[in-house]
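#struct-queue
[09:14] JT: dropping the first one here, sequence first, then the C-alpha cells:
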Amino acid sequence: MFTKLSFFHFLVTLVVLILASCNNSASIIKDINIGLHNNNKLLIQIDVNTIKPAQVYAQYWADSAEHEKLTSDTSKAALSNSLVFTNILPNTKYSFQLFTLDNGKKGESKTYHFQSEQLPIWLQDQFKATAPMPQLLPKVFTNGFLVMNKRESPGFTYIVDTKGRLRWYNMADNIGVKVTHFTKDNTILSILGTNDDPTSYGRAILEVNLKGDTLVHLQKGQGDFQYTIHHEIIKNDKNQLVTLYVDKRVMDLRAVGGNVKDTVAGDGILVMNNNGKKVWQWSVFDAVDPLKDPKILKDKGDWMHANSLSFDTDGNYLMSFYNNGQIWKINATTGEVIWKFGKGGTFTMPADCQFSMAHAAHINQNGDLMFFNNGIDKHQSEVYAVKLNEAAKTAQTDIHIQLPQEIYNDRMGSAYMVNDTTILVCCSKHHIAVLTNKKGVLLWSLDTAIPPYRVEFVDGETLRKWLLP
C-alpha cells in the first residue's frame, strides 16, 4: 500500500524527481513517486515507471552516513515497479540512486533526496536504554537488535536497537500481537488475539517480511485451524507452522470429587501448512491421565499451562509447563514423551538447579538446555543452562544466574545467550529487559512502555540487508 508523504517534506522533492528523470536521456525512467509503504513511517516506498519494461533497484543512505549504503531488492521486469526502503530513522535526510536493467544494459539515475517524517507521538519514547559502562558491552550486542511485541490492540511487533531506538515496527489493526517470533527466514511470525483473549492466547497467525508485506494470515476457523492457540508460534525445517493449542475435553471427574461432566483444558502441539491444513497433532491427554493429577480439580481450567515450545538439536520438541514446573522432550513423529526435566521428572536433578516455573526453554548455542525460571517459590527469578546426559538421565548446571529481587518476575519472561559471556533477559512484569554476565552483573537495561511476553536477540549481520546498527 502506498501513502504519499507530507506536503511539507516532499512536494519539492517530487517535482525535482519527475523532471530530472524525464530529462535524463541516459535513463529509461519515466517518473518517480515517493511515499510511505503500508502507511509505516519507517518504510519508504518508491514507485518507478519506465518507458519500457525493466528491472529496477536502488541504493540509499542517510546523508549523515554516506558510506553505509543499503541496496533494495531488484524488481521484476515491468513498466511499473515499487521498491521499499528499510533502515529509516525518523526526521532524517536521505539520498538514493536508481538503477535499471534492460536486456543486459544497466542505467543509473542521478542522486535524489528526501527527508523522513517524525514518528507518531504514540510511538515516541517507548524505549529507554541504559548502559552505566558501555565499554563492557560486547560488540555483537551493540550491533544487534531486539524483537518484542505489544499485546493489547492495536498490537505491534517492534525491532529496537540497543540504543533504545525504534528501528522497525508492524501494526496489527484492531487486534493485539500476543506473541511474536523472528524466524530463520528473516520474517516476523505472530499470534494475534483480541483484548478479550487471555494474555498470550489468540485466534490468528500472521507472518510478515521485513518490508512489512503479509506472507501468511490464517484465522481460527480456516481449514484445520479450529483451536485457540497460545504462547508459541514457530516454523519447522519444512516451513510448516508449529504452535501450542488449547485442548478442552469433557471428562467424568467424580472419582476425584468433581462432576460427571467437567471440562479439563489441556495443551497440545499443532502443525499446519501455510493454508491451515493439519500436518501433525499431539495432546497432553495422550501422555497423562488427568485423574492421576492430585491437583486436577484446582487446575482443570488450565491444567498444565504450556508456555513455550522449541526444537531440540535432533528435531524433537521441547515444551515447558508453568503449573507442574517441568520441561518435556516429545518425539516429533510418534508423540512419545522422551523425558521430563524438573521436579518429579525423569532426570536426577542437580542440587543447584531447583526451579519452580520455567519459560522460554530452548537449546542454547552451547547445546545446553536453557530457560528462565520465574522463581515463584523463592520470590527471585533466575536463569539456568543445564548440560543433559539423556542416556544416564543426569544433569549438570552450567549457568545459574540469580537476578536482582527488584526485577523478580512471577509470570512470562525469557533468557537467551548473546555470546559466551552475556545473556539477554526479559522480566515482563517490570517492563524491562537486561543484559547480564554469568555472574549476574547487569551491564545494560531497556525500560519498555509495554510488558513484552519475551525479548529475542537478533545479531546485526542477520539483519544487515534491512537494518544497520
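[09:21] JT: and here's the second one, same format:
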Amino acid sequence: MGLRREHRAFQQGDLDCLCGAYSIVNAMTYLFDGRIKRKPLLRTLLTQFAKQWPLDEWLTQGIDEIRMAHIIETVLMTGYYRKSFPVVITQPFNKRRIKTTRVVQEMQAFLGDNKNFSRVILFSNQYHWSVIKSMDENFMYYLDSSGVHRAKIDAYALYPNENRYQFYRDALYFIERDF
C-alpha cells in the first residue's frame, strides 16, 4: 500500500452536460451581485426543461439552441425571475448574415460600456455554453463552470473551421440587467 497515485477530483462537465444551466446561473449571479440563490435557480431551470423534454437528455447530451431559447423565455422572461431579477435579453445576430469581425466588434461594444457590471454575453460553441463578462483587443474573459478564465478572440469563427471554435449566431445572447 506504499504506492501513491494522483487523483483529480471531477469538475462540472466531467460527468454531466449541464454547462448551459451553469452558464445561466453564473450570468444571473454576476448581474445581480450574488443576490440570486443559485440552487433554486438551477432547480427551476431543470424542472422547466423536464416539463418539455426528458431531463436525462440534458444531463447526457447538453442543451441545443432551441431548447436554451425556450428555457430562457420560460424561466428568465416570465414569472418570479422576471419580476424579481429583470433582464433584457437579445439575440443580435440571430438570422443575420454577418462576418466574424463584425460580431466581435459588436460584442466588444456591448461589453465596453460595462462599468457597473450590468452586461454579459451568454454563448455556445460546438462544445460548451459559457458567459463572457469582458473583452479586450485579444481576449474574451469568462465566467465559466469548467474553470476556463479567458480565450483568444481569434480562436473563434462563425463558420466551421477545423482550427477554431465556432460561434453560433442563434446561441449568442446579449444579457443586460434592467435597472
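[09:30] RK: nice, looked through the second one.
[09:31] RK: The beta strands are 87-90, 119-124, 129-135, 139-143, 150-152, 156-157, 165-166, 172-177.
[09:31] JT: good to know. Residues 38-52 form the longest helix (15 residues).
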